[in-house]
Amino acid sequence: MNGLRKGRLVIISGPSGAGKSTVVRQLLDRCHLPLKLSVSATTRPARAGEIDGVHYHFLDGARFNQLRDAGDFLECKEVFGLGYWYGTLREQVATGLNEGSWVILEIDVQGAMAVLDEGEFDPITLFVHTGGLESLESRLRGRETEDEEVISRRLSIAAEEIEFMHRYQYQIINDSVDRAVDEICQRLSEHREH
Ligand code: ADP
Ligand code: 5GP
Asked: What predicted TM-score, i.e. pTM, was given to this entire model?
Protein backbone atom coordinates (compact mmCIF):
# COMPACT_ATOMS: atom_id res chain seq x y z
CA MET A 1 0.00 0.00 0.00
CA ASN A 2 2.95 2.39 -0.64
CA GLY A 3 3.40 2.87 3.09
CA LEU A 4 -0.02 4.48 3.35
CA ARG A 5 -2.09 3.53 6.33
CA LYS A 6 -5.35 2.02 5.27
CA GLY A 7 -8.63 2.59 7.09
CA ARG A 8 -11.81 0.58 6.81
CA LEU A 9 -15.39 1.62 6.29
CA VAL A 10 -17.91 0.14 8.74
CA ILE A 11 -21.65 0.50 8.17
CA ILE A 12 -24.07 0.05 11.06
CA SER A 13 -27.80 0.10 10.33
CA GLY A 14 -30.91 -1.05 12.11
CA PRO A 15 -34.37 0.19 12.94
CA SER A 16 -34.81 3.38 14.89
CA GLY A 17 -34.84 2.51 18.59
CA ALA A 18 -32.75 -0.66 18.20
CA GLY A 19 -29.97 0.98 20.21
CA LYS A 20 -27.47 1.87 17.46
CA SER A 21 -26.36 5.17 18.98
CA THR A 22 -26.04 3.64 22.44
CA VAL A 23 -24.01 0.71 21.13
CA VAL A 24 -21.82 2.86 18.87
CA ARG A 25 -21.02 5.26 21.71
CA GLN A 26 -19.76 2.40 23.87
CA LEU A 27 -18.00 0.76 20.97
CA LEU A 28 -15.98 3.95 20.47
CA ASP A 29 -15.06 3.93 24.17
CA ARG A 30 -14.27 0.27 24.59
CA CYS A 31 -13.15 -1.32 21.35
CA HIS A 32 -9.38 -1.23 20.79
CA LEU A 33 -9.64 -0.60 17.02
CA PRO A 34 -8.98 2.94 15.68
CA LEU A 35 -12.68 3.66 15.26
CA LYS A 36 -14.05 7.04 14.28
CA LEU A 37 -17.70 7.99 13.88
CA SER A 38 -18.59 9.91 10.73
CA VAL A 39 -20.78 12.90 11.65
CA SER A 40 -23.65 13.10 9.16
CA ALA A 41 -25.50 16.17 8.01
CA THR A 42 -29.25 16.41 8.59
CA THR A 43 -32.12 18.80 8.12
CA ARG A 44 -33.87 17.31 11.19
CA PRO A 45 -34.04 19.74 14.11
CA ALA A 46 -31.66 19.01 16.98
CA ARG A 47 -33.10 17.13 19.96
CA ALA A 48 -32.51 18.45 23.44
CA GLY A 49 -28.87 17.81 24.30
CA GLU A 50 -27.71 17.28 20.71
CA ILE A 51 -24.73 19.40 19.72
CA ASP A 52 -24.11 20.76 16.22
CA GLY A 53 -20.97 19.21 14.76
CA VAL A 54 -20.92 16.42 17.37
CA HIS A 55 -24.15 14.47 16.89
CA TYR A 56 -24.91 15.85 13.43
CA HIS A 57 -24.18 18.87 11.32
CA PHE A 58 -27.61 20.46 11.56
CA LEU A 59 -28.32 22.25 8.27
CA ASP A 60 -31.30 24.02 6.77
CA GLY A 61 -32.79 22.63 3.58
CA ALA A 62 -31.13 25.19 1.32
CA ARG A 63 -27.63 24.46 2.61
CA PHE A 64 -28.24 20.70 2.45
CA ASN A 65 -29.32 21.01 -1.21
CA GLN A 66 -26.28 23.11 -1.96
CA LEU A 67 -23.98 20.38 -0.63
CA ARG A 68 -25.95 17.73 -2.48
CA ASP A 69 -25.73 19.62 -5.77
CA ALA A 70 -22.00 20.07 -5.23
CA GLY A 71 -21.62 16.27 -4.89
CA ASP A 72 -20.41 16.53 -1.30
CA PHE A 73 -22.46 13.54 -0.09
CA LEU A 74 -21.35 9.96 -0.49
CA GLU A 75 -25.04 9.18 -0.07
CA CYS A 76 -28.04 11.13 1.17
CA LYS A 77 -31.63 10.08 1.81
CA GLU A 78 -34.92 11.35 3.16
CA VAL A 79 -35.05 8.75 5.87
CA PHE A 80 -38.55 8.53 7.33
CA GLY A 81 -40.63 10.18 4.61
CA LEU A 82 -41.22 13.09 6.98
CA GLY A 83 -39.25 15.57 4.92
CA TYR A 84 -35.97 15.37 6.83
CA TRP A 85 -32.80 14.55 4.94
CA TYR A 86 -29.68 12.82 6.21
CA GLY A 87 -26.37 12.53 4.39
CA THR A 88 -22.85 11.17 4.73
CA LEU A 89 -20.22 13.80 3.94
CA ARG A 90 -17.58 12.45 1.55
CA GLU A 91 -14.94 14.54 3.23
CA GLN A 92 -15.59 12.92 6.65
CA VAL A 93 -15.08 9.49 5.14
CA ALA A 94 -12.02 10.43 3.07
CA THR A 95 -10.26 12.16 5.96
CA GLY A 96 -10.92 9.27 8.34
CA LEU A 97 -9.80 6.59 5.91
CA ASN A 98 -6.69 8.55 4.93
CA GLU A 99 -5.60 8.81 8.54
CA GLY A 100 -6.02 5.05 8.94
CA SER A 101 -9.25 5.14 10.96
CA TRP A 102 -12.06 2.65 10.80
CA VAL A 103 -14.85 5.04 9.87
CA ILE A 104 -18.29 4.13 11.18
CA LEU A 105 -21.35 5.19 9.21
CA GLU A 106 -24.50 4.89 11.31
CA ILE A 107 -26.94 5.17 8.43
CA ASP A 108 -30.28 3.79 7.29
CA VAL A 109 -30.67 0.81 4.97
CA GLN A 110 -31.27 2.90 1.83
CA GLY A 111 -28.04 4.79 2.47
CA ALA A 112 -26.18 1.57 3.19
CA MET A 113 -27.41 -0.01 -0.06
CA ALA A 114 -26.31 3.11 -1.97
CA VAL A 115 -22.78 2.83 -0.52
CA LEU A 116 -22.68 -0.90 -1.32
CA ASP A 117 -23.88 -0.23 -4.88
CA GLU A 118 -21.14 2.33 -5.33
CA GLY A 119 -18.72 -0.57 -4.87
CA GLU A 120 -15.80 1.60 -3.87
CA PHE A 121 -15.18 0.89 -0.22
CA ASP A 122 -15.58 -2.82 0.60
CA PRO A 123 -17.37 -1.90 3.84
CA ILE A 124 -17.91 -4.20 6.82
CA THR A 125 -21.68 -4.21 7.37
CA LEU A 126 -23.62 -4.81 10.57
CA PHE A 127 -27.34 -4.72 11.25
CA VAL A 128 -28.35 -4.06 14.85
CA HIS A 129 -31.83 -5.07 15.96
CA THR A 130 -33.80 -6.02 19.04
CA GLY A 131 -35.10 -9.34 17.81
CA GLY A 132 -38.74 -8.11 17.86
CA LEU A 133 -40.93 -5.13 17.01
CA GLU A 134 -42.46 -4.99 20.53
CA SER A 135 -39.14 -4.26 22.21
CA LEU A 136 -38.40 -1.72 19.51
CA GLU A 137 -41.63 0.10 20.27
CA SER A 138 -40.99 0.17 24.00
CA ARG A 139 -37.44 1.47 23.51
CA LEU A 140 -38.64 4.18 21.15
CA ARG A 141 -41.30 5.25 23.63
CA GLY A 142 -38.89 5.00 26.53
CA ARG A 143 -36.47 7.37 24.81
CA GLU A 144 -39.17 10.09 24.93
CA THR A 145 -37.69 12.06 22.05
CA GLU A 146 -40.40 11.66 19.41
CA ASP A 147 -44.14 12.30 19.29
CA GLU A 148 -46.75 9.64 18.40
CA GLU A 149 -46.80 10.39 14.67
CA VAL A 150 -43.05 10.06 14.41
CA ILE A 151 -43.00 6.88 16.52
CA SER A 152 -45.59 5.13 14.36
CA ARG A 153 -43.81 6.25 11.19
CA ARG A 154 -40.50 4.89 12.51
CA LEU A 155 -42.16 1.59 13.48
CA SER A 156 -43.72 1.04 10.07
CA ILE A 157 -40.37 1.79 8.43
CA ALA A 158 -38.69 -0.62 10.87
CA ALA A 159 -40.62 -3.56 9.41
CA GLU A 160 -39.35 -2.62 5.93
CA GLU A 161 -35.78 -2.16 7.14
CA ILE A 162 -35.70 -5.60 8.77
CA GLU A 163 -36.25 -7.10 5.32
CA PHE A 164 -32.80 -5.83 4.38
CA MET A 165 -31.12 -7.51 7.34
CA HIS A 166 -29.77 -10.39 5.24
CA ARG A 167 -27.86 -7.95 3.02
CA TYR A 168 -25.54 -7.22 5.95
CA GLN A 169 -22.56 -9.39 6.84
CA TYR A 170 -23.47 -9.51 10.55
CA GLN A 171 -26.80 -9.41 12.37
CA ILE A 172 -26.34 -8.25 15.95
CA ILE A 173 -29.10 -8.63 18.52
CA ASN A 174 -28.85 -5.79 21.03
CA ASP A 175 -30.30 -7.71 23.97
CA SER A 176 -27.66 -6.28 26.25
CA VAL A 177 -25.53 -3.31 25.31
CA ASP A 178 -22.34 -4.79 26.79
CA ARG A 179 -22.78 -8.06 24.96
CA ALA A 180 -23.64 -6.40 21.63
CA VAL A 181 -20.61 -4.09 21.91
CA ASP A 182 -18.31 -7.05 22.64
CA GLU A 183 -19.72 -8.99 19.70
CA ILE A 184 -19.31 -6.10 17.28
CA CYS A 185 -15.75 -5.42 18.45
CA GLN A 186 -14.94 -9.11 18.05
CA ARG A 187 -16.44 -9.26 14.55
CA LEU A 188 -14.56 -6.15 13.45
CA SER A 189 -11.29 -7.44 14.90
CA GLU A 190 -11.57 -10.47 12.63
CA HIS A 191 -11.13 -8.08 9.68
CA ARG A 192 -7.78 -6.75 10.82
CA GLU A 193 -4.96 -7.43 8.41
CA HIS A 194 -2.08 -9.26 10.03
P1 ADP B 1 -31.18 4.14 17.82
O2 ADP B 1 -29.91 4.94 17.76
O3 ADP B 1 -31.06 2.80 17.17
O4 ADP B 1 -32.39 4.87 17.35
P5 ADP B 1 -30.90 4.47 20.74
O6 ADP B 1 -29.46 4.16 20.95
O7 ADP B 1 -31.34 5.91 20.81
O8 ADP B 1 -31.45 3.80 19.38
O9 ADP B 1 -31.71 3.59 21.80
C10 ADP B 1 -33.13 3.68 21.93
C11 ADP B 1 -33.51 3.56 23.41
O12 ADP B 1 -33.28 2.20 23.84
C13 ADP B 1 -32.68 4.46 24.31
O14 ADP B 1 -33.51 4.98 25.33
C15 ADP B 1 -31.61 3.51 24.87
O16 ADP B 1 -31.17 3.93 26.14
C17 ADP B 1 -32.37 2.18 24.95
N18 ADP B 1 -31.52 0.99 24.78
C19 ADP B 1 -30.47 0.85 23.94
N20 ADP B 1 -29.95 -0.41 24.03
C21 ADP B 1 -30.70 -1.07 24.93
C22 ADP B 1 -30.68 -2.41 25.45
N23 ADP B 1 -29.78 -3.34 25.07
N24 ADP B 1 -31.63 -2.75 26.36
C25 ADP B 1 -32.56 -1.84 26.76
N26 ADP B 1 -32.64 -0.56 26.32
C27 ADP B 1 -31.73 -0.18 25.40
P1 5GP C 1 -32.19 9.95 14.11
O2 5GP C 1 -33.17 10.97 13.57
O3 5GP C 1 -32.83 9.03 15.13
O4 5GP C 1 -30.90 10.54 14.59
O5 5GP C 1 -31.74 9.03 12.90
C6 5GP C 1 -32.69 8.46 12.11
C7 5GP C 1 -32.12 7.52 11.09
O8 5GP C 1 -31.30 8.22 10.17
C9 5GP C 1 -31.28 6.39 11.66
O10 5GP C 1 -31.73 5.18 11.07
C11 5GP C 1 -29.90 6.70 11.19
O12 5GP C 1 -29.16 5.53 10.98
C13 5GP C 1 -30.18 7.42 9.89
N14 5GP C 1 -29.09 8.27 9.45
C15 5GP C 1 -28.30 9.08 10.21
N16 5GP C 1 -27.38 9.68 9.45
C17 5GP C 1 -27.57 9.24 8.18
C18 5GP C 1 -26.91 9.50 6.93
O19 5GP C 1 -25.96 10.25 6.81
N20 5GP C 1 -27.42 8.86 5.84
C21 5GP C 1 -28.48 8.02 5.90
N22 5GP C 1 -28.88 7.44 4.78
N23 5GP C 1 -29.12 7.76 7.05
C24 5GP C 1 -28.66 8.36 8.17
From this structure: 0.94
Number of domains in the chain: 1
Q: Judge whether 55 lies within some domain.
A: yes
DSSP 121-186: S--EEEEEE-SSHHHHHHHHHHHT-S-HHHHHHHHHHHHHHHTTGGGSSEEEE-SSHHHHHHHHHH
CATH code of residue 38: 3.40.50.300
Q: pLDDT at residue 55 above 90?
A: yes
Q: Which residues sit with their C-beta closer than 6 Å to ligand 2?
A: 16, 40, 44, 75, 77, 79, 86-88, 106-108, 110-111
Residue 126 within a domain: yes
Cα 66 from chain centre: 23
pLDDT in tens, 141-155: 998 888 898 898 889
